[in-house]
Amino acid sequence: MLVEAARLRINAQLIDAETDVHLWAERFDKSRTELLQAHDEIVGRISRSVGIQLVRTEAKRVKRDESNVADLVMRARALTYDAKRKQAAAEAIELFRHALRLDPDCISAMVGIGLTRIYQVVNLDQPEAREELLHEADEMIARVLALAPRDFDVLKARAMLLRAHGRFSAAIIATEALIARNPADPTAYKEMGLNNLYLGITEEAANWFRRADAIAPRDPERWTWLQGLGRALMQLGDDRGAIAALSQALDSNPDHVRGKALLAAAQALAGNANAAKQHLEEYRSQEPNMTIGRFAEQRSSVPPDSVSEVYHRESRRILDGLRTAGMPD
After folding, report:
1. pLDDT in tens, 91-126
2. CA of 229: how far to CAs of 178, 192, 219, in Å?
3. What is the pTM for the complete model shown?
C-alpha cells in the first residue's frame, strides 16, 4: 500500500500458495477524502474478482468426481464465467442438473440453472427458445426463494428475471436493494443502466453504465455494460463516444457477434464508411442472412411492448446506422 499526500494506492495480488503462480492482480487508486466511501467498493471488488478467479482455478484443479455435488457446481460455475459461455451453457446446465439429481435441495445448482437460462435470454443466445428458457428460470428462482429468500445470488437472479420479463420499475427496486447490500457489484449497476435505458431515461442509463465501469474496469463481464453504454450513447447521438465504448466492449469479449453489428452502426453514423463496412462484413460472416427487419425483431432481450416510446424512437438511430453501413432491409 502506497500513501501519498492526497492519494491512497492499494495493490492487491492473488498467488497460488502451492505453485507460487500469479493468478490475479488489481490496483485501487483513491483520494484520501474518498477513503471511507471507497472501503466497501475496494472490499467488494476484491471479493468478486478473487471469487471468480478461485472458481476458475479450482474448477481446473478438482478431479472429475461425478458424485461430488460441490465439484459439479464449481465446474458449472466456471463455465458460466467463460467469455464463450454461449457455447458452454449446455454443459453448465447439465452439470447443475446432475448436482440437483444428487441433492434436490442444492441452492447453488438451482440458482445456477436459473441464471444460465436468464443469461441465454438477455444475451439473445437462443431468441427462438425465449419462453421455454424463461419458464425454467422462473421455476428455479421460485424454488430457491422458497428455501433461501435472503440468498444474494437468487435475489440478483430475480432482479435480472424481472428485467427479462419487461418489469423494469420492479427490477430497479430489486436492484437498488442489491446495491445497498453490495455497492461494489458492477453487474447491479449494469442492471440499473439497462432498466433505465428501456424506460427511456437514457442519460441516466449511460451514467449507470459508466459507474459500473469505474467500479470494475477489468471485470470479465465488462463487455456487457460497455455494450449498454455504446447503445445509450448512439441513442443520444454521441456516435464517437459509442464507438469508443463498443470498441472496448469487443476488446473485452471478441466473440460477442452482435457487438460487431452495433459497432458497424456507430461507425456509419459517425461517417466512417470504411470502418462501418469492415465491421458489418465481420458480423455478416457469422450472421449472413441478417436483415434490418430481423435485427429489429431480435435486437431486444425484453418484450417489445414493455419498453417506452422514447426507447423505440431513439433506438431507430441504430437501425439507421446499420442501413447506412450496408445491412439490407
Report:
1. 889 999 999 999 999 999 999 999 999 989 988 888
2. 21, 12, 16
3. 0.82
